[in-house]
Amino acid sequence: MEIPKKMLAAQLVARGQIEVREVDVPVPGPGEVLIRVEACGICGTDVTIRDHGMPGEPPMPFTMGHEYAGVVVQLGPTVDEFKVGDRVASEVHKGCGRCHNCIMGNYTACLNFGKLEKGHSASGMTTNGGFAQYAIKHVNTLYKMPDEISFEEAAIITTAGSAFYAIDAVGGYLAGDTVAIIGPGPIGLALAQAAKALGADKVILTGTRKSRLELGKKMGADYTVNVREGEDPVKLVKELTGGIGADVVFDAAGVGSSLDDALNLVRPGGAIVLVAFYHGPVTVDINKAVVRNVNLYTVRGEGRRNVRRSLSMAAQRKIDLRPLITHEFPLKDINKAFDTFTQRIDNAMKVIVHPQR
């Protein structure tokens, strides 16, 4: 394929300021490929990076975007896992491969996070990402896309990957369980789908936005609870479980009260998985966990190759992320796309940017 020398990329040039600029097309190194980016999703983490920054962030200007899919157009040295023309989905994190955590398979918690010289990279976070016409990816972070999956759906497959990783953290076995999910955002909705696909008996989704709770019903939730309208999730869960509580609770909200809510929803000996990033310190009575032997887990990102599992589940239509995609924009309108996402214009959920348009 003919590859241009220059491309357009949406770069963070100052805190809170993104500009579309012409830059050089990167050249893949050993173990890397060059991808023509067809679709890149906007995530809440992108907003955090834009407005506040994250540890390991490269010097500005750099290209953001970590949820993307495209076509392999050039192979770096030693690459034989892919060929030019392959349609590929990507995950964010490439561990260094040499620290204790990476060797144990926990590469999203790489001990060399942000150290490019040690081999770590996180697309759009510590290295240039996918809000560009072309992007570099290491083969460790790529998966061939099933024919049934569109670029738009593949771009947000890390949403499902994060959901399956959260389930993986508690053993990956939900058959027959009662599951409560706090927060009907993209990951909360993906969790509802994933839990039902894996055989959960009852899935309860709690939140404050009627439209998102209604979408949750279409995506697998058996029961929804609108806290804003005074509905009581603890009461419902107790009624459904004979007063015992949920077997597993996923906190996908990350607000001040959500961890305490999770502690009130879970049964003795049950599990809580913290999936969301919290906006600041939270205060809870941790004795609610200790006295009742509740297990607390945390996950970051889409580890343990759960993006591959998600692609397979999507191709089988056991999960379907397409209802999450609400808006699409060309790269030149990147700031309008961010505004639509952050201001939730027209009930925006997942916003897709198309670098080739």
Please state the overall shape, judged from the principal axes of the Cα atoms. globular
Task: Determine the fraction of residues in helical runs and give it as a percent range.
Answer: 25-40%
| H/I helix tally | 11
CATH-scheme architecture of the largest domain = Alpha-Beta Complex
Structural class call reads alpha/beta
H/E order of the elements? EEEHEEEEHEEEHHEHEHEHEHEHEHEHE
Average pLDDT, all residues: 95
Q: Strand percentage, roughly?
A: 25-35%
Radius of gyration: 20 Å
Oligomer: single chain
- In total, the number of domains comes to 2
Instruction: Give the CATH topology of the largest domain.
Output: Quinone Oxidoreductase, Chain A, domain 1
**CATH first level of the largest domain: which class?**
Alpha Beta
N→C terminal distance: 18 Å
Number of strands: 18
Q: Which spans have pLDDT < 50 for at least 5 consecutive residues? A: none
> Any idea what the CATH superfamily of the largest domain is called?
Medium-chain alcohol dehydrogenases, catalytic domain
Largest sheet data: 7 strands, mixed
Domain Enoyl reductase (ER): 16-353
Pfam family, one: ADH_zinc_N
Protein name: Alcohol dehydrogenase catalytic domain-containing protein
InterPro entries: ADH-like_C (IPR013149), ADH-like_N (IPR013154), ADH_Zn_CS (IPR002328), ER (IPR020843), GroES-like_sf (IPR011032), NAD(P)-bd_dom_sf (IPR036291), Zn_alcohol_dh (IPR050129)
